[in-house]
């Protein structure tokens, strides 16, 4: 079972084996955490992502971390919120599970996640936190996983969900 912890911080500064990027399907770098990771990793990340020819929603692909303290970046496009009637919950769960699978395949022991799809993709934070925590805690591998909340609202939503699960 994966171990889970929650912190407030900047995912681009995490000293872990892999950080997860809440990417777009083109893997082209965008706003929010995606843009921050691309800027911190340097232009080599853009070049590496272009060679991957995109990534479907819910899947995950891996690149080196380049200028980041993390060895790898695991890119996963989460779903855009369309009211909850377009398989969003399963796609979001798939983003977490497939990212964890890529971490194991690449020999990672420590992984840091952002809150996937809760920024510009507008996924409701309370629902996303429940899916993320459940997907990570039930993943059958001995990984140390850190959820890195960029702001207080995200941190509070994940902390509330963790407290509900106790």
Automatic annotation (TrEMBL):
The lineage of its organism: Bacteria, Bacillati, Bacillota, Bacilli, Lactobacillales. SUPFAM superfamilies: Macro domain-like (SSF52949). Residues 1-166 form the Macro domain. It comes from the Bacteria. InterPro entries: Macro_dom, Macro_dom-like. Pfam families: Macro (PF01661). Gene3D superfamilies: Leucine Aminopeptidase, subunit E, domain 1. This is Appr-1-p processing protein.
């Amino acid at each position: 079972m994966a171990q889970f912890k929650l912190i407030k911080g900047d995912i681009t500064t995490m000293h872990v084996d892999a950080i997860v990027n809440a990417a777009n399907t083109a893997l082209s770098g965008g706003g929010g955490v995606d843009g921050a990771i691309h800027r911190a990793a340097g232009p080599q990340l853009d070049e590496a992502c272009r060679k991957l020819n995109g990534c479907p929603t819910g899947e995950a692909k891996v690149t080196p971390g380049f200028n980041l303290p993390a060895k790898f970046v695991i890119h996963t496009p989460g779903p855009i919120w369309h009211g909850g009637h377009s398989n969003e919950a399963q796609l979001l769960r798939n983003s977490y599970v497939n990212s964890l699978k890529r971490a194991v395949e690449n020999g990672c022991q420590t992984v840091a996640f952002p809150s996937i799809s809760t920024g510009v993709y507008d996924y409701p934070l309370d629902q996303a936190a429940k899916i993320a925590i459940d997907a990570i805690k039930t993943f059958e591998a001995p990984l140390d996983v850190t959820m890195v909340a960029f702001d207080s609202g995200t941190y509070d939503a994940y902390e509330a969900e963790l407290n509900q699960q106790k």
